[in-house]
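Q: Structure tokens for this one, please.
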Amino acid sequence: MSDERVMVFIDGNNLYHELKGHFGRSDLNFAKFCTKLAAGRTLVRTYYYNAPLDATREPDRHLRQQKFFRSLQALPYFEIRLGRLVYFDWPKQSPIEKGVDVKLATDMLVHAFRNNDDTAVLVSADTDYSAALQAVKDHGKHVGCGPLFRPADFPAPGEDKRPNDRDQQEAPPATAGPEAGRRVTRRASRRA
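A: Here is the predicted structure, written as tokens:
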């Protein structure tokens, strides 16, 4: 294992939609995925960013999401950071995620400035992070961007008997879909 220290920063909502869009599924094994992203370097910590569903507006999905969060919290060196969802005209409009991007960018910068890592790996396709990534690089750190998916990151057919994310009830730890089918709209400043 290399002495190079890596921290992984995952935009959970973005990752979920990338997985669903590219593979039609979201049952990623986060432990294996983060180990692959570290690529033989020392994985210091993984940060996963998301926003909790409202228990009164979406009770079933909220329970599935909380179970998923607990499975992630059981992983070593894995931390969850939560923003919030704003429900303007529910259920006609999907909720809007607030605070997640700022938390992720802030954490990435703080860890670089405190010299807690040598490389920051961002798992997101969101171009809003480009200024934060440049600031990390300007501080003399390396950056990497994901998602970097291969079929090996998913369980083999028949290897895992869990239901799909539409009817997920008893998902095993750290392999459940990060959003359990959640619909979330990003704030208006997002790219189209």
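A few notes: The chain has one domain: 5-153. Confidence is low (pLDDT under 50) at residues 160-192.
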